[in-house]
Amino acid sequence: MADTSALQDGARSEEATGVIGIHLGTSRASVAVLHKDGRPHLVANEDGDRMVPAYVAFTGGEEVSSSHEPIMLSIDDSCLIEDPAVDEFRGHGSRVALTEEHGQLQLEIPPEEQWNDDGELVQAGEASHYTPEQVVAVVMRQLRASAESALGRAVTGAVLAYPAHFSSVQRAGLCRAAQMAGLAVYQAVSEPAAAQLAFDASAAPGDVNRLVIDMGGTTFRVHAYAIRGGLYSRLASRTEANLGGRALDRALAGQLQRDFTRRHRIDLSDRPRSIAKLILACEATRRILGVRPSAPCSVESIADGIDLNVNVHRAVFDTAIAPLVQRCMAVISDVLAQAGWSVEGANDRARPHEVLLLGGASRLPLLHSQLNKLLQTATAATATSDDQPANGAIKIRTDIEPDEAVALGCAIQASLLAG
After folding, report:
1. Would the pTM of this model clear 0.70, i.e. be above it?
2. Which fold, 204-383?
3. Where exactly are the transmembrane stretches of this chain (predicted)?
4. Three-class SS of residue 80?
């Protein structure tokens, strides 16, 4: 079982490699290193956070990667997507335009924003222009600094993870961003490959059919792998956009918005800043509901000086997100069909044997319960690759935190390449 604890100052080691593993997800980023005990560890930043929101704030002509105010601009897959039609990033309800200059994609950042008490946007100054790679490099520089602080030495390079659907152009853009951050790119590996390396580090998986289900900040991805004699073959894959943590947050925010309107007769739909604040609060609420039956949701002065303070029960949350979870089940069923697998098949080689869950949003209790129904699984809280599911039941692996596996796998690969 991989140790996913963060390195602290007292745990620095000169034996640790200067090559790190970086995972830049759609909403959060993480960096991992191999410690002297030979196991990968996630590195905490100066605030003690191992999962850093992948946001960049543009203020006063400076760009700052910040875990405190993740509402100016979010790093997303679309930062590295060639399609100019992708033209909106999350933040204060404002738009960040994608333009082309001499054939190169650029982000046009609006002038520094100021808001009055009525929620109206007041702008001043001139717009700034950044390439997507420059924006991503800001986050990578922060991750590199955290790793150097933990290791007590310079970081010379990195292994990067990228979504499996990325094109060669997108992968090249990610590598350029790392180079801008002062990192030599030793290798770029797909997210499902890196995660499986972390899960399989303690023991070879043997011959197994595996589903890799990744629910991140903005997308839902499912991959089917057949592992035979140590070779990993991807049989099927599907990516569903706008089906991730943010969609869940918006679904809950929509429910709370309607409740607020009924109670106070105030329509929030034309107040983008209020909606942005509510969605951000719902994200924190969702994370708590992943482990508790209820959670608070609070927004100070959401409208006309009125605060929003409610206690959200998981049943209310489940009702709000049920259509989204059903979409997830449809994607999984489609990948099973593409792979030629059946959960009820008598042929053991034509059925899935285990499931890896990736991404912070995959902690949803409703997702787990619906997945259990769909796959007729046997979930083990400490399941490892050595455990055999009873009576041929499909096993859900939970031995590594779902949002940490990719970075840990990158760190393992980095140590192998660095020798």
Report:
1. yes
2. Actin; Chain A, domain 4 (3.90.640)
3. none
4. helix
